[in-house]
């Protein structure tokens, strides 16, 4: 039996609230550690040189992954983004 969708949303919302509280106050509202954040800021992608800006925006425009906005920052789903680049085939120079 599947879990109630509203319960799932509430759990995710609670994790987001804990993470935001931690980032604002530099401490967590619970004693349990906050799990790995599944979103990656796009600025981090460019700083780590995972891909160039033109390549990133070309794949975004093609619909290979989605962009999420939280406040004034843009994020991508880490797994969705990285799986896009694992499936790319490079041209061979002949």
How would you explain this protein's 3D organization?
This protein has 94 residues and is an alpha+beta fold. It folds into two domains: 1-35, no CATH class; 36-94. 49% of the residues lie in helices and 13% in strands. A three-stranded antiparallel β-sheet has the order 1-3-2. The radius of gyration is 17 Å and the shape is globular.
Q: Measured on Cα atoms, how large is the radius of gyration?
A: 17 Å
Number of helices: 4
Helix content: 40-55%
Could you say which structural class the secondary elements and strand pairing correspond to?
Answer: alpha+beta
Widest β-sheet, arrangement of strands: 1-3-2
Q: Gist?
A:
It contains 4 helices and 3 strands; from the N terminus they run αβααββα.
Chain-wise SSE layout:
Layout: H1 5-25, E1 39-41, H2 42-47, H3 53-62, E2 67-70, E3 73-77, H4 78-86
Antiparallel strand pairs: 1-3, 2-3
List the defining traits of the structure above.
single chain; 2 domains; 13% strand; alpha+beta; 94 residues; three-stranded antiparallel beta sheet
